[in-house]
Each structure stands twice: as C-alpha cells, then as structure tokens.
Amino acid sequence: MSFKTILLHLTNDEKLESRIAIALGLASEKQAHVIGLYTISPVTPPTSFMGYIPPEFIERSRGIETENAQQAEARFAAKANEAGIDFSFIQEEGYAPDIIFKHAMTSDIVVIGQVDPDDEKSAQYQNLADELVVSCPCPVLAVPYAGTYQTFGSHILIGWNNTREAALALRGALPFVANADKVTLLNVNPSSDQTEGNEAAKRFLERHGATVEIKVGHWPDVGVGNALLDALVDYNADMLVMGAYGHSRLREMILGGATQEILGHMTAPVLFAH
Questions:
Q1: What is the mean pLDDT of residues 32-51?
Q2: Which domains does the chain have, with CATH numbers?
Q3: Alpha helix locations (H) across the chain?
Q4: What is the pLDDT of residues 86-95, one digit of tens each?
C-alpha cells in the first residue's frame, strides 16, 4: 500500500511552507502526485450590513481571497518545482469541507494544518479539521501550527481500542508504518481485557514489516486525548495515529472527547480516520 495522490489544503498563512514540505516529502518518498487545493469561502457580510451586501464589499473580499490564492499557488508551485514533484493546483469557491471532501474521494490522504487561533488569515478554517476528520473518505493528516516537521514517523504511537475507527486509522497509516523504526500500540484506560485484539493488531502490523510494542496505560481523571498527548512525550513518539470520534458525534460535541482534545492541543502530526 502506498500514497499516489496527496491532497494538500492550501492556506496563505505563515505555516504553509511546513505543510508543503510534508506533502512534497511524502510525494518524493512514494512517487506520488500532489494536488494543491485552495478553497475560497463565499462572501459573508458583517451583521451591520442588515442583509444588504454592498457590491464594493463583495469585490474587495473576493479580490483579497484571489490574491491569497495566487500567493499560495506561487509558494506551492515554487517548492514543488524545486523538488521535482508532479503537482497540480485547484482553486474553488464554496464551503471548504465539501470541496475537500469531493477531491478526497479520489485521493489517498489529505494534508491539512491545525489553525493558529492568532492568525487572522486562517480564521475562516477554524472548524475545518473538526468537520473534515469525520466526513473525509480517506485518512487526514493534521499538522500542528507550532513547530517544524520536516521528518516524522520514526516512532508512531497508535491509539488502539479495537474499534472500527481505530482499525481504519491503523490501515490508513500503513505507508508510514512501512518506514517507521518502531510502532507502539497503546490502550488508554481500557475498561476490559484487550489482549486478543492487541495481539491481532500487533501481528497485522508485523506482517507489514513493523517493529511493534504493546502498551496499556491508565491515566486516572485524564481524558483519552490528553492521555495520548502525554504518551507522545512519555514514549518519545513523533507521530500519532487515531480513530476520530469513536462515540456519538453529538455526545462528543456536548461533552468533549479525545478528537477535540487532540485537535486543540496537538504536538506532533496526527493521522485521523473515521
């Protein structure tokens, strides 16, 4: 299994180069094509306009977004050409999750960035990751806005709980697993004996050439997401793989959950699947 089509969501922010580097690095390693996708949100008027959108507001807003798209394309194309990577660029106007979903239907993986809450240019994508990890038909690799990640995946931590979502994430991570020095399967606060499922997952990964260690951790009074973040540090891992929203989405939205904890505080690239 390998990645042959990588979909990179482009935003014209300070951290774009980091995400471009990750997408191009994967493409170089897997001899893949990278699609750079820039989504332009429909013009939304301030509430002070009382339903009327002045034409000059629409023109100015679209002009700014068009300029951002052109700049993002130029940054992406320059890096791709420099690296000798096969690439294409797409610009579409509409609701970003829907546009990304459409192109993800024929992609192997989607690369997105965690939104920096202090970056005004990325404010429109504040909830993008939260929606995309649930709806996306292929795995989503989310890159933290803080830090640089030219290389990662030498030690992969997999949040494993013998569920459908975890299994999809595990399969989606196989191209990374193939190059990892070590994989740790981690049960967080299990409520029952997971030995049989753990051993089956271990054998599955070993058949793909992985060196696998099973860990069972108990973090009293700590959510699963925060426990996984702690484990990344404790086990010196540099990538996290996990299923997204293992419980009811409504329950997660009301009570919070591991996915939201990770999306808000990720400290390493995270591969999600749902």
A1: 78
A2: 5-143 (3.40.50.620), 155-268 (3.40.50.620)
A3: 16-30, 55-83, 96-104, 128-135, 164-172, 174-177, 195-207, 224-234, 249-255, 258-265
A4: 999 999 999 9
